[in-house]
């Protein structure tokens, strides 16, 4: 009841900010353009998932932290009221993550629906993209929340940390892996590589996309480790479990920080 | 009845409250005074659960507040610097809090007219002046008719007229047997509204007792001088 | 008068001939209920041109030899079970027809190529509607001309290459027609060596241990509308000239050495209208020259085309490349082939004059494909933002990718 009231308020507030609508529109425009110009096939889905892999982590982390800062007043107001902190935390998180997820889902799904792609394209691929997008939204918003709480008193630090983290996870991390591959390529490094990739949530999400769209290429790789990982249910299972862990951990840490926090 | 036992609070290496022991009987109006940074606000926030104590316990009506939240139903709090969601209008804010608490009180409209805020109901919080926000804070604190009222520097931003009206209201609440906790730098206000005094320095309670006893002890007619004298003593 | 004699003579001759035909085309019936219970005996009793009718039932016999032109015709559910003793049916005469029967369980062996049906030194044989189950080789044609294999269903449950033979095996044959057969679970679904002028159409060859079809030294053949899917190595075509590979479907061949189709030393051939879908490598070309690869569709392959540098003068024209992980990869910066007028879904150019052709050329070889070539493990970074940035930089200023391997007329929309 309380959580619902909080959610209701936040939704109104977010909609009033129009930001969230713009965010949904970005997906709508991109998905529409991709389907219009790329045809209603795997190409459009791939383009959508590429955009998703880029945008959701960035927006999730930065806006997750920013939102905590923006709603500081709201938080302090509510903390003096008869409400428990977990409810408030999940209310705050849900109040941001759910609208973000909804904006993504609606923005992506609408063009898929009205272009008739829902019938022509692989339903499994569509569902995977939608599901992954939603999981990623929860994951990276949670991560952003954690940053925000970690650097609650220093907004510049928190936002900077979110941005740098994104840059690191999205680009630099893979650069380091690439360097490692070329430096130690003669050694059996598949397992550590897989481990490294699974340890980075953006890579993890990317690999999940690979499992759906690039399995032919992955199966063409000559190493037994990758083949066993990607060629069986093990790959998708491990990826799913890791995604789940990555979603839960920042939220769990964030929740603990929030419960102990002095306001 | 509010009991604070061995309360300690550290922010990092800095100790803000040290071994605080305090009993505030129900229905008593208490003023908390002390120099800046003496731990007044931290004490209040600990009572509200906004600040988590490093050690020690707080009991309200015999029940520990640790991990509890429902006890805040009986506390009205008016913060020192009132910050509210900027995009909300005054009316929305009040009805939101009411909806969240599941309350149907109509005291808010009473209080709105009492503070002459009726014409501001549809204004967003960001459009309000500091004083008006303070008034909204006062309304939020009192609209649910709680048993304990906590005011942190309540009149700091209020114009004299509003200040008088506010004090009048607190006085009425006190008459009704509410427990009142008040911090202020304006000694006359303390004198006017409370009977008991807590004097804090560097996170310790230096005096807790009836106000007139303090004045008698310090051989001063006015609270301000008595407190100033005590500050000098502790500094020495 | 002489004319009349001639006519009479002709008429009597025709009547006589006719009566000869009638008397010769008798029927022999083999049945579990007797009196004839053996297929081999039935064949022995039959005269040239006779039909041996086999009634429903399971006949455990092996090495059944057909040494005269007869028709072996099953009626109902007929199974000839070789009981893993040897060949099941061996055809050694021309113009034999085998129809509507089941042939099961030939012997498996390392020294001899045991088969469900062996046709050796026999021409114009017709094998139709035969269900071959669990034979070492299914149908084995050696030195046979004008033979027709139609509507047969050939399955085995081979586990390893060594204990499994080929579904349809052709060796030194000519002008063979193979149509609408289904082959599964053999070593190679179809295997051709020294075959000339065969027509292979509408067959399905899937889940074979090695190749869906494997042919070499087999010129002038034509492959149309066949489906090769989910075979261990895909399809391998070698040392052959002048073949037409048209409208076939190569799909789901995945693995570190699985190819939709592997071409090795294939020259002057036509590869048109085929679909390559979900293969680790769609089309692999090595030492193959002067081929036309036209109007094919490469969709969702790991590598649409792997083109080795020793392949030259091939033309890739009006193909569609859709959502492949890699479009083209090669092993050299040198290259002497032509790509023109294809549709590439990875093309990122524009078409300002709206003529349907992209205004900037397309470079189908990504930098990343070269990185993967050098260090296969880096494949794990596919679709990473970093890789996309590297690719974009390379496209802008090619340093490692073949500079001349470009499609100068990339299409804006898929071509039909």
Automatic annotation (TrEMBL), chain A:
Q: Does the keyword Transmembrane helix apply?
A: yes
Task: Kindly state one GO CC term assigned in the UniProt record.
Answer: plasma membrane
Q: Does the keyword Transmembrane apply?
A: yes
Pfam families per record = ABC2_membrane_2
Q: Which positions, given as ranges, span the membrane?
A: 20-39, 51-69, 89-114, 126-147, 159-184, 229-252
Q: Name one molecular function that GO assigns to this entry.
A: ABC-type transporter activity
UniProt keywords (A-Z) are: Membrane, Transmembrane, Transmembrane helix
The identity of this protein, by name, is Cu-processing system permease protein
UniProtKB/TrEMBL annotation, chain B:
Per UniProt, residues of the ABC transporter domain are: 2-227
The UniProt record lists the keyword Nucleotide-binding? yes
* Gene3D superfamilies according to UniProt: P-loop containing nucleotide triphosphate hydrolases
Keywords, A to Z, come to: ATP-binding, Nucleotide-binding, Transport
InterPro entries listed in its UniProt record: AAA+_ATPase (IPR003593), ABC_transporter-like_ATP-bd (IPR003439), ABC_Transporter_VariousFunc (IPR051782), P-loop_NTPase (IPR027417)
**Annotated Gene Ontology MF terms?**
ATP binding; ATP hydrolysis activity
Q: Which domain of life is it from?
A: Bacteria
Q: Known Pfam families for this protein?
A: ABC_tran (PF00005)
PANTHER family tied to this protein:
ABC TRANSPORTER ATP-BINDING PROTEIN ALBC-RELATED (PTHR42939:SF1)
Q: What is this protein called?
A: Cu-processing system ATP-binding protein
Lineage of this protein's species?
A: Bacteria, Pseudomonadati, Balneolota, Balneolia, Balneolales
UniProtKB/TrEMBL annotation, chain C:
Ordered alphabetically, the record's keywords are:
Repeat, Ubl conjugation pathway
Pathway assigned to this chain's UniProt record: Protein modification; protein ubiquitination
**Keyword Repeat: yes or no?**
yes
Q: Which residues form the Carbohydrate-binding/sugar hydrolysis domain?
A: 73-201, 209-360
Q: Which InterPro entries match?
A: Carb-bd_sugar_hydrolysis-dom, NosD_copper_fam, NosD_dom, Para_beta_helix_rpt-2, PbH1, Pectin_lyas_fold, Pectin_lyase_fold/virulence, SCF-Subunits/Alg-Epimerases
Record's superkingdom? Answer: Bacteria
Instruction: Tell me yes or no: is Cell membrane among this UniProt entry's keywords.
Output: no
Which SUPFAM superfamilies does the entry mention? Answer: Pectin lyase-like (SSF51126)
Tell me what this protein is called: Nitrous oxidase accessory protein
Its organism's taxonomic lineage begins at: Bacteria, Pseudomonadati, Balneolota, Balneolia, Balneolales
């Amino acid at each position: 009841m309380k959580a619902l009231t909080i959610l209701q308020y936040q939704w109104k507030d977010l909609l009033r900010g129009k930001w969230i609508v713009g965010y949904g529109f970005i997906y709508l425009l991109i998905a529409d353009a991709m389907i219009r110009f790329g045809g209603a096939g795997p190409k459009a889905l791939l383009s959508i998932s590429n955009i998703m892999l880029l945008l959701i982590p960035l927006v999730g982390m930065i806006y997750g932290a920013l939102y905590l800062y923006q709603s500081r007043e709201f938080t302090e107001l509510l903390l003096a009221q008869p409400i428990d902190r977990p409810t408030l935390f999940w209310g705050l998180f849900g109040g941001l993550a759910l609208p973000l997820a909804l904006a993504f889902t609606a923005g992506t799904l609408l063009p898929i629906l009205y272009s008739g792609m829902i019938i022509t394209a692989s339903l499994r691929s569509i569902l995977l993209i939608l599901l992954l997008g939603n999981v990623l939204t929860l994951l990276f918003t949670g991560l952003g929340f954690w940053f925000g709480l970690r650097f609650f008193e220093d907004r510049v630090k928190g936002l900077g940390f979110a941005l740098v983290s994104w840059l690191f996870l999205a680009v630099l991390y893979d650069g380091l892996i690439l360097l490692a591959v070329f430096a130690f390529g003669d050694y059996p490094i598949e397992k550590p590589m897989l481990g490294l990739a699974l340890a980075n949530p953006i890579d993890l999400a990317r690999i999940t996309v690979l499992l759906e769209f690039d399995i032919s290429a992955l199966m063409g790789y000559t190493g037994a480790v990758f083949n066993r990982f990607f060629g069986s249910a093990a790959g998708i299972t491990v990826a799913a479990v890791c995604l789940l862990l990555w979603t839960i951990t920042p939220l769990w840490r964030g929740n603990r920080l929030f419960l102990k926090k002095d306001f | 009845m509010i009991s604070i036992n061995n309360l300690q609070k550290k922010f990092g290496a800095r100790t803000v409250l040290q071994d605080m022991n305090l009993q505030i009987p129900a229905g008593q109006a208490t003023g908390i005074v002390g120099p800046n940074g003496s731990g007044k606000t931290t004490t209040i926030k600990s009572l509200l659960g906004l600040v988590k104590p490093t050690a020690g316990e707080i009991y309200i009506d015999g029940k520990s507040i640790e991990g509890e939240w429902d006890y805040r139903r009986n506390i009205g709090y008016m913060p020192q610097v009132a910050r509210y969601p900027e995009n909300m209008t005054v009316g929305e804010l009040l009805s939101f809090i009411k909806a969240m608490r599941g309350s149907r009180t109509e005291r808010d409209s009473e209080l709105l007219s009492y503070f002459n805020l009726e014409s501001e109901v549809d204004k967003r919080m960001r459009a309000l002046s500091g004083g008006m926000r303070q008034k909204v804070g006062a309304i939020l604190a009192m609209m649910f008719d709680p048993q304990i009222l906590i005011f942190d520097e309540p009149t700091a931003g209020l114009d004299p007229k509003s200040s008088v009206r506010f004090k009048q209201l607190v006085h009425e609440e006190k008459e009704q047997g509410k427990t009142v906790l008040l911090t202020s730098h304006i000694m006359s206000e303390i004198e006017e509204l409370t009977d008991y005094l807590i004097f804090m320095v560097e996170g310790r309670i230096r005096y807790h007792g009836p106000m007139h006893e303090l004045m008698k002890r310090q051989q001063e007619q006015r609270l301000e001088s008595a407190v100033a004298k005590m500050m000098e003593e502790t500094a020495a | 008068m002489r004319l009349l004699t001639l006519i009479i003579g002709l008429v009597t001759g025709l009547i006589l001939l006719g009566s000869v035909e009638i008397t010769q085309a008798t029927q022999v019936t083999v049945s579990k209920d007797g009196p004839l219970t053996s297929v081999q005996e039935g064949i022995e009793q039959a005269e040239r041109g006779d039909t041996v009718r086999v009634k429903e039932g399971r006949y455990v016999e092996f090495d059944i030899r057909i040494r005269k032109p007869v028709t072996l015709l099953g009626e109902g559910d007929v199974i000839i079970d070789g009981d893993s003793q040897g060949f099941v049916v061996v055809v050694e005469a021309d113009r034999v027809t085998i129809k509507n029967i089941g042939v099961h369980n030939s012997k498996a062996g390392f020294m001899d190529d045991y088969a469900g049906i062996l046709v050796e030194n026999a021409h114009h044989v017709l094998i139709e509607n035969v269900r071959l189950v669990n034979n070492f080789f299914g149908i084995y044609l050696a030195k046979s001309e004008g033979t027709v294999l139609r509507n047969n269903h050939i399955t085995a449950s081979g586990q390893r290459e060594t204990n499994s033979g080929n579904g349809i095996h052709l060796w030194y044959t000519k002008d063979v027609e193979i149509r609408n057969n289904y082959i599964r679970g053999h070593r190679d679904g179809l295997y051709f060596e020294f075959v000339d002028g065969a027509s292979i159409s509408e067959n399905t060859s899937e889940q074979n241990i090695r190749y869906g079809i494997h042919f070499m030294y087999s010129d002038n053949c034509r492959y149309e509308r066949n489906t090769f899917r989910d075979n261990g190595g895909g399809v391998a075509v070698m040392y052959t000239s002048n073949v037409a590979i048209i409208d076939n479907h190569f799909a789901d061949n995945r693995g570190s050495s699985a190819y939709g189709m592997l071409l090795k030393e294939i020259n002057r051939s036509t590869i048109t209208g085929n679909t390559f879908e979900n293969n680790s490598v769609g089309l692999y070309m090595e030492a193959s020259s002067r081929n036309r690869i036209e109007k094919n569709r490469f969709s969702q392959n790991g590598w649409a085309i792997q083109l080795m540098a020793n392949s030259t003068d091939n033309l890739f024209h009006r193909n569609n490349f859709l959502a492949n992980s890699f479009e083209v990869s090669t092993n050299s910066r040198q290259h002497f082939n032509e790509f023109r007028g294809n549709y590439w879904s990875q093309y990122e150019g524009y078409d300002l004059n709206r003529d349907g052709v992209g205004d900037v050329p397309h470079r189908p070889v990504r930098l990343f494909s070269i990185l993967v070539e050098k260090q296969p493990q880096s494949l794990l970074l596919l679709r990473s933002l970093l890789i996309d940035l590297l690719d974009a930089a390379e496209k802008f200023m090619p340093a490692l990718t073949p500079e001349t391997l470009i499609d100068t007329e990339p299409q804006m929309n898929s071509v039909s």
